[in-house]
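Form P-L/3: holo structure prediction, ligand adenosine-5'-diphosphate.
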Amino acid sequence: MSGRLTIAIDGPAASGKGTLARRLAAHYGLRHLDTGLTYRGVAKALIDAGQPLDDETIAEKAARALDLGALDRAVLSEHGIGEAASKVAVMPSVRTALVDKQRAFASAPPGAVLDGRDIGTVVCPDADVKLYVIASAEVRATRRWREIMDGGGSADYAQILADIERRDARDMGRKDSPLRPADDAHLLDTSEMDIETAFQAACKLVDTRLAARNEN
Ligand SMILES: Nc1ncnc2c1ncn2[C@@H]1O[C@H](COP(=O)(O)OP(=O)(O)O)[C@@H](O)[C@H]1O
Ligand SMILES: Nc1ccn([C@@H]2O[C@H](COP(=O)(O)OP(=O)(O)O)[C@@H](O)[C@H]2O)c(=O)n1
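OUTPUT (holo model):
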């Protein structure tokens, strides 16, 4: 590949953006950052320290102290931490601190795939390819439910659906960097696509962009 490649992937909870991001990063030899883990990391640090989730001064301090290299997916991906993460994610100074770190990650060679809520709109507005991944709330709740059950946990489908819908509303309704597709994002509705089909569709978009770039 010639030149740096940045791929931005956004979408709501359990739409499949992380799965897609990991596969695209492996396929194109890029580094990957799941930016959701950074918000989850701040929330977990506050919870572990017995601190409130709604004190912006304390939360900003935790965000500035966060080490991107020390994010433990196994611990942070717990369903309940997603809700806490969406509460700290409404605070502008927390977002500024994390976006600085995310941009530093994105700018290092040979390029990167970042997934989250505001990658195409705020973190990497100049990304080469932007994907906005969606699926119906019911499909997403079923995926998350299955993920928890397969991991040996117990989960209530109705509760997960309610959690996802509440988090969607908070993420789309906040003032700072709400979840929305960038004007130049490609919409990928995975409601009726399996992982392989979604990956092939994404590769097609990236390859088209790379071919156009090589022509210029
Ligand atoms: N297209 C798809 N079809 C079926 N299951 C999927 C698809 N994409 C992702 N999944 C599964 O759904 C769950 C949530 O996917 P994930 O990539 O973690 O979503 P997100 O990062 O958007 O929260 C995972 O268990 C994943 O394996
Ligand atoms: N770039 C990002 C990524 C996550 N977030 C917040 O962090 C929460 C957890 O994100 P996540 O991507 O780990 O959640 P899932 O989609 O994996 O359930 C989201 O609900 C958002 O509130 C954000 O605001 N901006």
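COMMENT: The chain has two domains: 1-30+114-210, 31-109.
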